[in-house]
Structures are given as structure tokens and as C-alpha cells.
Specification:
With 80 residues, this protein is α+β, with helices and mostly antiparallel strands. Helix content is 45%, strand content 12%.
């Protein structure tokens, strides 16, 4: 089984839908710095608004590339 650990120095948490009292408690328990929208994921801006066609296309292309790399690695691992 593969185990993935996040880099807390490069990660943030965006918290919404909770009270002002709950928010700092969540941030403290999780251990990440608090972030805010908009932010970028795989080079694509992530906002609370709907992504436009270009942003969706960019995100899909980057995700497809990642999946192909993972699938290739899995295939090579299983063959060896």
C-alpha cells in the first residue's frame, strides 16, 4: 500500500460553513495554515465561483496527465 504524506509547509486549509469559534479550532487540529479562495490547484485557479470553460479544460488536461503517469507507474510496478 502506498502512503502519501502532505507537506504542511506547502499546504493550506480553506474553511467555510462554520462559526467564527469553530474555524480556528479546525485550523489548529488539522495543523495547516489557513488559506483563502481563490487559490491554485495544478496551476488552475480554484474559486467559490464556477470555473469557466478554459479553466475546466486546463484542469482536465493536467489531471489526465497525472493519471497517465500514475497508471504507467502502477503497470510497471505490477509487471516487475
Amino acid at each position: 500500500m502506498l502512503r502519501h504524506e502532505t507537506n504542511k509547509d506547502m499546504s493550506q486549509i480553506v474553511v467555510g460553513g462554520c462559526t467564527a469559534v469553530q474555524k480556528p479550532m479546525i485550523v489548529e487540529v488539522v495543523g495547516y495554515q489557513e488559506g483563502a479562495c481563490p487559490f491554485r490547484y495544478l496551476g488552475v485557479p480554484i474559486t467559490s465561483n464556477t470555473l469557466n470553460k478554459l479553466e475546466c479544460r486546463q484542469l482536465l488536461e493536467k489531471m489526465t496527465k497525472k493519471v497517465k503517469v500514475w497508471a504507467t507507474k502502477q503497470h510497471h510496478t505490477q509487471v516487475e
